[in-house]
Amino acid sequence: LTLLLGALPGILAVMGLEAAALGECEITQLLQDKLQYEMRLQYMKHYFPLDYTVQVQYEEVLRPSNITRLRNGTVSEAALRYLWFHVSSQALLRIRQVLPEKHPSWKYTQELCRLFDALGREYGAYRQTDVDVVVADLVKQVHSAGAERRRKAVRPKALLDNCLKVMRMLFGRPCECQGS
């Protein structure tokens, strides 16, 4: 996997931004394994107080309906995957901010962060100018300190539920095609 990840920038250049890279597919498969329902339920619901919420920016909640709307607006699949990565990794960081190191969910979220870091290396070559303007603007808002005033309370499990649903929408078909 390390050798493959090192060769990925060249593969991306040859395949173009539209194709899901093999590394993306492998990493998202590992993420999907880590985001199984039982694990999300245990680590993001049972290990938190009843009705516990995390304060996130409005833009850090990415639902399948958002993806459908952006697709209908002709945003490219590669740009949507780039958006999903930024929103999901930021939401995961929000969850980690509220966890003490001795919390039972700490190691689980640490493993998720490692997978997102590996995926981040995949997207490291992308620049916001390479993706659709609407996506670049959303990514900028997610990482903007000025958007902090637009907050909403969301359950940690709901954030990871959305992460998985959107990931399946965006990576399901491109990664299945590469596996055959």
From TrEMBL:
May I have one GO cellular component term? extracellular space
* Protein origin, superkingdom: Eukaryota
Give a Pfam family name: IL34
GO annotation (BP), single: positive regulation of monocyte differentiation
Q: Which InterPro entries match?
A: IL-34, IL-34_sf
GO molecular function terms attached to this record: macrophage colony-stimulating factor receptor binding
Q: Where is the signal peptide?
A: 1-23
Keywords for this entry? Signal
Gene3D superfamilies registered for this protein in UniProt: Interleukin-34
Q: Which PANTHER family match?
A: INTERLEUKIN-34
Q: What is this protein called?
A: IL34 protein
